[in-house]
């Protein structure tokens, strides 16, 4: 992890809350050494990151070629060459078309009422549990699990398995291959069965939409559809839970003075959600990787063909040519330019508008319902769950 920190002593970054991570300053593209000793190019200025993520000469598929890059050896669903995220060009678009209509800002806005009612149900359950409570078990995990389950049409058994599958799909490398294999097989079998069920009896859920659109499109390998569905169910809840956890640790730990306004002013909560998403990363990774197909100029520097390129969205979100310093100083000020937290270009996060909506509603309604919410033991160290691209608190003990 190449990040510097602006504190006097540099604590182990793996335990530092995500809002305290420092970022290397944005600079022209430059060669760096990855933790395993292999070479890559780091790209960190706003315009350069946008270029790398949008230019088709920088692809994902070649990263998975056996032996081609150090990233090819990664385990879990994230490294599957059948995953939409690891496809380029027409193969990628063909898969993305099966779902893209469902996730437009307008389509997602229509989900607001039922997502808001799930938020309220979770808050009722939290109130029934009583203070003290674990915010992760009581709110930040069940909320996105229920939302993605309803969207994808999952039954109760699948819901209960989601967190378990996620741990292996996004393994941090601590699981052996023997441990991973049976779980990932079980997960893929679940995906295959879900697709079969919806082929036989379509409903109004997104899995049925994938099946319908894929059949119309024709020629999409079944394994790619399985990985698409599995990727959505785990990616769709784990990332949102991580974001909620990281944001709530920050707000409850360091920004109590903003809590009342988040609860009383829905528009202010929306502005704050965007700023928090922008400034607090999901994890401590080096950025999102691409593979350069040809020699390509980025920001005045030629990146040679065959290079692995790490696009550091976190650093680019702090590029002083685009954003003033202190991104969280005024939590309610509109963002100066579009955030890169959801990436850019053809792989721009499919769930960005859903994640935004879940964060906005959660902040506003949680603060309105629990005006006195605070961390039970603010000085206690956080116990982290480490994934491939994220780091998330296992528990957040709160009182009110
Ligand atoms: C705060 C929450 C989230 C963050 C910060 C986030 C971030 C990202 C980023 C940065 C990318 C692009 C990576 C790249 O280009 O290399 C991405 C892609 C993706 N995200 Fe998210 N995401 C979030 C939530 C979600 C949710 C809720 C879903 C699903 C409902 C989702 C589904 C996807 C998918 C399917 C892709 C791959 C798109 C493609 O390859 O075309 N994400 N996400």
Q: For the residues shown, what is the average pLDDT? A: 91
| Strands ordered across the widest β-sheet | 1-2-8-5-3
Low-confidence stretches: 1-10
Query: What share of the residues lie within helices?
Result: 40-55%
Count up the helices: 14
- Shape category: globular
Helix and strand arrangement:
Elements: E1 30-33, E2 39-43, H1 46-54, E3 58-59, H2 89-97, H3 105-109, H4 112-129, E4 133-134, H5 135-140, H6 142-152, H7 156-169, H8 177-200, H9 206-217, H10 222-254, H11 259-264, H12 266-279, E5 288-292, E6 296-298, E7 301-303, E8 308-311, H13 313-316, H14 352-369, E9 374-375, E10 384-386, E11 391-393, E12 397-399
Parallel strand pairs: 2-8
Antiparallel strand pairs: 1-2, 3-5, 4-12, 5-8, 6-7, 9-12, 10-11
Helix pairs in contact: 4-6, 4-14, 6-10, 7-8, 7-10, 8-9, 8-10, 10-14, 12-14
What does this entry look like structurally?
The model is unreliable at 1-10 (pLDDT under 50). The chain is built from 14 helices and twelve strands. Helix 6 (142-152) packs antiparallel against helix 10 (222-254) and helix 12 (266-279) packs across helix 14. With 400 residues, the protein is of the alpha+beta class. It has a five-stranded mixed sheet with strand order 1-2-8-5-3, covered by helices on one side. A three-stranded antiparallel sheet has the order 4-12-9.
List keywords for this structure.
single chain, 3-stranded antiparallel beta sheet, 14 helices, 12 strands, 46% helix, disordered N terminus, binds protoporphyrin IX containing FE
């Amino acid at each position: 992890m190449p990040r510097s920190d602006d504190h006097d002593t540099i604590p182990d970054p793996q335990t530092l809350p995500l809002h305290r991570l420092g970022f290397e300053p944005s600079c022209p593209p430059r060669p760096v050494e990855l933790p395993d000793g292999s070479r890559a190019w780091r790209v960190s200025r706003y315009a350069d990151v946008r270029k790398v993520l949008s230019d088709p000469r920088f692809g994902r598929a070649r990263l998975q070629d056996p032996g081609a890059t150090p990233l090819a050896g990664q385990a879990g669903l994230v490294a599957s060459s059948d995953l939409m995220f690891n496809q380029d060009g027409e193969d990628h678009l063909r898969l993305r078309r099966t779902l893209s209509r469902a996730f437009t800002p307008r389509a997602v806005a229509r989900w607001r009422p039922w997502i808001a009612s799930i938020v309220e149900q979770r808050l009722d359950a939290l109130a029934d549990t009583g203070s003290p409570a674990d915010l992760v078990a009581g709110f930040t995990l069940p909320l996105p699990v229920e939302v993605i389950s309803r969207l994808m049409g999952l039954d109760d058994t699948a819901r209960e398995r989601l967190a378990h599958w996620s741990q292996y799909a996004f393994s941090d490398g601590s699981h052996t291959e023997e441990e991973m294999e049976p779980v990932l097989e079980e997960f893929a079998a679940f995906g295959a069965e879900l697709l079969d069920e919806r082929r036989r009896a379509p409903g109004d859920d997104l899995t049925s939409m994938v099946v319908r659109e894929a059949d119309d499109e024709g020629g999409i390998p079944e394994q790619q559809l399985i990985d698409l569905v599995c990727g959505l169910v785990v990616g769709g809840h784990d990332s949102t839970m991580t974001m909620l956890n990281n944001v709530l640790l920050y707000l409850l730990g360091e920004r109590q003075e903003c809590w009342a306004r988040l609860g009383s002013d829905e528009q202010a909560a929306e502005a704050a959600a965007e700023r928090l998403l922008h400034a607090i990363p999901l994890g401590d990774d080096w950025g999102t990787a691409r593979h350069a197909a040809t020699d390509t100029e980025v920001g005045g520097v030629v990146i040679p063909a065959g290079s692995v390129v790490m696009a550091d969205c976190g650093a680019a979100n702090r590029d002083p040519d685009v954003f003033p310093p202190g991104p969280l100083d005024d939590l309610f000020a509109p963002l100066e330019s579009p955030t890169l937290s959801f990436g850019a270009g053809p792989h721009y996060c499919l769930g960005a508008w859903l994640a935004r909506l879940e964060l906005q509603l959660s902040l506003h309604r949680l603060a309105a319902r629990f005006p006195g919410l605070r961390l039970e033991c603010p000085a206690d160290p956080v116990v982290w769950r480490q994934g491939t691209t994220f780091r998330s608190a296992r528990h957040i003990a709160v009182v009110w």
